[in-house]
Amino acid sequence: MADETPVRVVLAKLGLDGHDRGLKVVARMLRDGGMEVVYLGLRQTTASIIDAVEQEDADVVGISMLNAGHLTLGPLMVDALADAGLDVPVVIGGIVPDEDRPILAAAGVAGVLGPGSPAADVVACVQAAVAGRGH
Amino acid sequence: MVNSDSRTDSGPGFRTLSGIPVDGVYGDGPLPGEFPYTRGVHAEMYRSRLWTMRMFAGFGTAGDTNARFHDLLRAGGTGVSTAFDMPTLMGRDSDHSWALGEVGRAGVAVDTVEDMVDLFAGIDLGSISTSMTINGPAPILLAMYVAMAEEGGVERSLLSGTLQNDILKEYQAQKEYVFPPRPSVRLVTDVIRFTTAEMPRWNPVSISGYHIREAGSTAAHELAFTLANGFAYVEAAMAAGLDVDDFAPRLSFFFNSHNDFFEEVGKFRAARRIWANWMRDRYGATDERSLKLRFHTQTAGVSLTAQQPEVNIARVALQALAGVMGGTQSLHTDSHDEALALPSEGAARIALRTQQVIAHETGVANVADPLGGSHYVEWMTDEMERRATDVFTHLDDLGGGSILEGVYAGIESGWFAGEIADAAYRYEREINAGDRIVVGVNAFTEGNDAERARLLRIGQETEDLQLKRLATVKQARDDRAVADSLRRVVADAGNPTTNLMPALMEAVTVRTTVGEIVEALEGVFGTYVEQAVI
Q1: What is the ipTM of this complex?
Q2: Per-domain residue ranges for chain A?
Q3: Buried b (16+ CB within 10 A) or exposed e, B143-160
Q4: Integer Cα distance of A19 and B361 in angstroms
Q5: A108, B19, B139, B232: which could join B407 in a potential S-S bond, CB 3.0 to 4.6 Å?
Q6: How far apart (Å, rounded) are the C-alpha atoms in residues B491 and B499?
Q7: How many angstroms separate the CA atoms of B8 and B47, rounded?
Q8: Tens digits of residue pLDDT in B272-284
C-alpha cells in the first residue's frame, strides 16, 4: 500500500441489525485516519456490498453486526467476494466472543474489532487487512 | 423468600441500619406526589411499593426464553420483559432470506401465535405484568399477545403490561422501522385507541430515550428527544379524536441510566416536571394521572466494557442506584457479560441481585427523593430542563407550531441522527485522547487478559427448530382464512380512519404470520429507507 493513494473502505451493516453507532464512529475514525470511506448504511446484502466494492474500486470491506450473527454472515461475505472474483479483505466490527476469532480467521475474515477499539487500532486493523491482500 | 415488590419485608419499620427512625420525606413542598412531581409521582414512593424488578430477556426459541422467564421469576423478579430477535423486530418470518443467521440470536423468534403460546407458558398473565420491546410490527405482536391470552382463558381487559410501540425513536436512533413515519404513527394511534377502549391496564406506548442514549446522544438530548416524541404522540392521538385525559394516563416512558450519577438523577427529575407542565399547559390535561410521568429504567448497555467484565457489576449497581434515586417505577439491570455476548443465566441473576441489594439492604428506598434539596441536584434538574426546552423550541419552529410535525421534519432532514452521531464521536474521541477515563479500557488495564467466564451461545439448531415449527403451523392452518384475513388487513390499512387492530386480531387468530401481515401492509404503506449519513 503506497502513501499516495488513500485506502478506500466500504462500510456496511450486513443483515437486519440496526445498531449503527459503532459503524458510524469507525467511519469517522477511518476518515480522520486519511482513508476514503464509502458508507452504505443499514440493511445491506452481500450483493449490494459487492456492487459498491466494484463501483467504488474499494480495497477493503468493513461490516458491523451486534446481533450474534457473525459466524454466519462473516463467512458469507468472504465467500461472496471470492465468488465475485474480488480480492478484497473483510473486517468485522461488533460483539465477537474471543473464541470465535480463530473460526472467523479460518473462514478468511481479515480482522475483528470489538467494542471500544481505539482509533489507532481501528486504522491499523484496516491497514493490515489491506496489506495482507492476496495472502 | 421475599418475592414481591410490596414492603412487607421492611421488618422493624423504616429505620436506619442502626435503628434511627426516618420520615418518609424531608424538605418543603412541592413534595413527592404533588404537582409538578419533580420529586416523584407518589407521596410514599418506595415505602408503599418498591419498583418492579423487570428483567429483559429473550433468546433462541420461545421455549428457551420461557425457561429464562421462569428462572427470573423464581429468583424474585416481579415482571418479565421480552426481547425479540432481529427478524421479528423487522417484521420478517424466520424463513425469510433476510433472517439467515439471525433467528433467535439476539432475542426470541416469534412468527405466529403458537410461538407466543410457548413464550408465556405457565405465567399467570392476569397477575404478572409483561413488557414487549417491539416497534415496527408492534400492533401485530400485541394482537398475538391478546389472542394467546384469550385462547388461554385470560380476557384482554385483565392483561397488564407495556408495548414499546415507540416508532419515532426508531427513525432517530434504534433504526428498527418498517414503514414510513406517518403511517407508522397512525399504527401507534390505532393501538392507543384499541387499548384505551379494551385494555385499561395496558400501556400502549413506552416512549423511549434508552435507545437514543445508547446510540450516543447526550443526557439532555435523550431527555429532550424522548419528551418531544411523547408530545408528538399526544398530538397524533388528539388529532385522531381522542380526549387527552382518556389516553395520557397510560403513556409510559423508558430512560437510560448512564455513568454520571447526578446528571442522571437530574434528568429523571426534570422529565417529570417538564411532562407535568406541558401536559397541563399545552395539551389541556386535567386528570392528575395524565400529568404524572411514570418510567422504566435500564442501565446503560453501552457503558459496559469487554475488558475486565466483572467491573461492569459495579457500573450497573451505580447506574441502577441513580435510577432509584431518580424515582423509577421499574428497572432492568444489565448483565456484566453483555459486551461479550447475550446475558448468561448466572450474570442475569447477579444483575437482579444487584437490584435486591439496593432495595433491601441500602435503606435508600425508605425516603422519597432523598437527594431533593441538594444544591447540585436541584441545579442539574433545572439545567436539564433548560437544555430540553431549547430543543422543544427548535422542533416547534421546525413544525410550525406542532411538535409532531417538527419531529417528522427532524427525522426527514437527519437532524436527530446527526446530533446523536456527533455526540457519539465526541465521546469516543475523549476516550481515545485519554481525556475521559474508562476503567479497564484506557486506564487500570492490569487484569485484562484474565480468563473469561462462560458465555451464552445460540447455535444453528435454534434456526432449524424454528423453521420446522413455522412449517408445521403453516401446514395445519386454514389457507383460505389466512388469505381472507390478509385481504381485510389491506382494506383496513387503506382507510386511515379505520382502526387496524380488529383486522390484525382476526389475522393472527387464524395463524397468519408476522411476516405475511407486514408484507401486506408494506403494499399499502410502503417501506422506509433512510438516507445513510455519517
Answers
A1: 0.87
A2: 14-67+79-131
A3: bbbbbbbeeeebebeebb
A4: 37
A5: B232
A6: 11
A7: 10
A8: 999 999 999 999 9
- Cα B159 from chain centroid (whole Å): 18
Q: At B492, list the grid cell.
A: 383496513
User: Mutating which of A24, A44, A45, A46 best tests the B interface, going by the most B Cβ atoms within 10 A?
Assistant: A24
B438 belongs to a structural domain = no
Interatomic CA distance for residues B176 and B518, integer angstroms: 13
Let me know if residue B10 belongs to a domain: no
Question: Where on the phi/psi map is residue B28: left (φ > 0), alpha (ψ -120 to 50), or beta?
Answer: beta
CA B528 to chain centre: 22
Please give the average per-residue pLDDT across A10-16, as a whole number: 93
Comparing CB atoms, the residue among B98, B424, B532 nearest residue A39 is B532
Cell of B465: 427448530
Give burial (CB, 10 Å; 0-12/13-18/19+) of B64: buried
Q: Using the 8-state DSSP alphabet, how is residue B171 labeled?
A: I
pLDDT at site A4? 66
Please give the average per-residue pLDDT across B54-82, as a whole number.
Answer: 91
B39-49 residue pLDDT tens: 999 999 999 99
| B354 inside domain | yes
Question: Distance (Å, rounded) from C-alpha B393 to C-alpha B401?
Answer: 9
B79 φ/ψ angles, rounded to the nearest 5 degrees: -165, 165
> Is residue B278 in a domain?
yes
Structural domain tally of chain B?
1
| Fold (CATH) for A14-67+79-131 | Rossmann fold (3.40.50)
C-alpha neighbours within 13 Å on the C-beta side of residue A89: 21
Cis peptide before B502 (omega within 30 of 0): no
Looking at residue A59, the DSSP 8-state letter turns out to be S
**H or E element that contains A41:** strand A36-44
Among residues B365, B376, B302, B287, the alpha carbon closest in space to that of B329 is found at B365
Residue of B nearest to A24 (CA): B534
Q: Measured between CA atoms, how close is A134 to chain B, in angstroms?
A: 28
Nearest Cβ partner of B98 from A16, A76, A119? A16
Whether residue B341 contacts residue A68, with contact meaning beta carbons closer than 8 Å, is answered with yes
Does B101 contact A69 at a Cβ distance shorter than 8 Å? Answer: yes
At B280, which CATH number? 3.20.20.240
Q: Which of B175, B432, B533 is the closest to A18 by Cβ?
A: B175
